[in-house]
Predict the 3D structure of the following.
Amino acid sequence: MTRGVVYAEPGSRPAVEEIVLDPPGAREVQVRIEASGLCHSDVHVVETEGWGMRFPILLGHEGAGVVEEVGGEVTGLAPGDRVVIAWRASCGECPQCLRGDPRRCSSWPRAKRRLHRAADGALLSPVLRAGTFADRTIVHEACVVRVPEELPVEQACLLACGFSTGVGAALWSTPVRPGSTVAVIGCGGVGLAVVQGARLAGAERIVAVDVAAEKLEAARGLGATDTVDATAGDPVVQVRELTGGTGVEFAFSAIGAATGLAQAVRMCAYAGTATLVGVPSPGATLDVDLDADVFAPKISLAVTHGGDTLPQEDFPFLARAALDGRLDLGRFVSSVISLDEVPDRLERLGQGGEIRAVVRL
Ligand SMILES: [Zn+2]
Ligand SMILES: [Zn+2]
């Protein structure tokens, strides 16, 4: 029996239901999910009443597990392989891929819809082509990435979204230069991963900004050299004071509110880069002075989608970095829960100092 967390219709509450699977088709892979992280994008799906997807929806997109069955034409994967499911892999055919920039691919490979609700047979739409709050799912082979067995599966699943989004923002979207100065606004799971990425990239100073003392403490433990309590005054002023008035070369906004990106722009040094990490709140707009805040100081504005990773290269790299201690992935797993707890936990995601809750299946 396969069970999954289904968001049945707009306004309904996600619930655990029985689901049934068709066999995987050509270039598709059936994965037995062993662990899946709770990421804010699943909450976003509920808050936006489907995020443009067809109902019913199978939630979850941060999963790892074991290959159970491969469809035709699948190469390089076999039953028993420990894998992480990437929600974005590059297609090789879109304008960005064709011009040699696959990190900015806009046409992510997807499997056909193969999962149904047991109750009425309706086809499920898996969130971000993944659908990992389930014992099993079926995904495109390009999204299935082998990782070392030694990495605990509760940690491996975090490579699929939040952790690689944050680390990748600092390593690949807007690569932090060794010796540079960085600010990270918002120290939830993704922001803390930006801190880790900036440290791995060799940043000399990493200023963590948040309103919660426990998150700032966590940031220090993961590589932040300075912290700014955003409740104690304008964080832009505080970051500028910390940097002798100069500002930072790289500022990352890892909060949904638009104020984070505006602050990131305004705390950049001359020719600095402000990067938007994570999905903004619906309707959020950017309020900055285009001359004083952007043109005169020559600020670049960038967006990362999931850290702009090339999963087949980057996930194994991140896994090795976690295994040899260059990245502290274990610290990101703050609780391990069951599938039945997911609907409740989604409603209070990120509260009470939680970094990442992980479902163990
Ligand atoms: Zn592409
Ligand atoms: Zn996510």
Notes: The mean pLDDT is 96. The longest strand covers residues 28-37.
